[in-house]
Amino acid sequence: MVDLKVLLVEKEDCDAGTVQQIRNGLAEDNSQYSILRDATEVLKKKLEIARPEQSNKLHLKIGLSLFFLGHPSQAIEHLRQADSTLANFYLGRALLGKKDYTEALRAFERAEKGGYTASQVHLQKVAVYRASGNIKEAVATLAKLADMASHSAEYHFQKGCLASADGLFSQAIESFEQAIKLDPGHTGALFELARANDYAGNDDDAVDYYERCLRHPPVHLGTLNNLGVLYEDMGQYTKAVECYRKLLAANPLDAQARLFLKDAQASQSMVISHTDDKVDTRLSQVFEIPVTDFELSVRARNCLKKLNVKTLGDLTRISEKHMMASKNFGEQSLNEIKQMLTIKGLRLGQSLEEGAPTERATGRVDHIQLSEQEQAIYGKPVSELNLSVRARKCMTRLNINTMGELLSKTADELMEARNFGVTSLNEVREKLTIMGVSLRGD
Length: 442
Known about the structure:
Helices cover 68% and strands 0% of the residues. By secondary structure, the protein is mainly α. Among the domains are: 274-356, 5' to 3' exonuclease, C-terminal subdomain (DNA polymerase, domain 1), CATH 1.10.150.20; 370-435, DNA polymerase, domain 1 (Orthogonal Bundle), CATH 1.10.150. α5 (72-82) runs antiparallel to α6 (85-97), α11 packs across α12 and α15 (237-250) packs antiparallel against α16.
């Protein structure tokens, strides 16, 4: 095992080989993070009494250590003062992570002028161009590096990112998979594959890729956030708590991570009644039975169609008075409907009495009552809100696919969903406010 303290404190040299040894050491054992932190503190003390000719290398070592420990802002401060080719390259990477694209480009240019491998610098420039929205320049720069396709994981990673930006998701996945074949520890490719599986609902595969990301520093903070949410979905609250604690260690001011941590800690002590879950599941299945499965008269079928009633669950969310107010709906049709519900142990207005959502909560709003602008909003997919991973998963869990279905919910109904906390609720409210709409009851 690499002794990181000896490597950084006792050995004089610090070059690209040192960087690789730091990565390898951290990947070997999580305890190495503690050793690296201790070594960094020793280096800082040395810097306080160092002679001018020694400070350059100490700034470099401290900057690299902080970069791999996941503290880019602090790393930038030291790497700026190191003023070496290696320092400029990692300064560029740290600035890229902080979205300071102009300064990142300048740092990479200084690294190239100082003799850093040109192809590696240009690949990082592709990342800067892509992240800053200059896709044309990114594509042109990557095209000049085509000879790296046979051996460079970073080349395939950048190629995959560009394909993804162009909507070519299958090609993007192929490139990311090629990247990890060439370098199983390429965190960028692992993260993108994890995220792709996360969006596709392949939770087990997503967790596997995210966990592999954690073994290869520097750790992307998005990895900790997304993995924490997945752990919560799987009921692995202890692991979720660990992810959120690491997020807060990296950024103590992260209010969202603090709330997520609080939610996960609370869930650790929750007692779940599996019997109630089974009852709820059976009832949900009955609610989903289509009304077309039953023998009804033409008049009754037409009336239900006008009311946009499609399932037995819809009927439990409508009162008898509301149905009788419908044109051409008489006592005979009403008795047919009641008899149909009785067979399944249900009754009209049952969900209303139990405090469940009203007719509007089905999400199938009577569009005749809406303006054209409102109809357009209600018909939009909820994915257009670009919600965070946690909020998006809650939408899936609640089977909310359209804006109409979301707008029919109250804040209390959303908060009843597992892992849907105040943070997610505020996020949804903010996104809806931008669109000029709000949750039912807001």
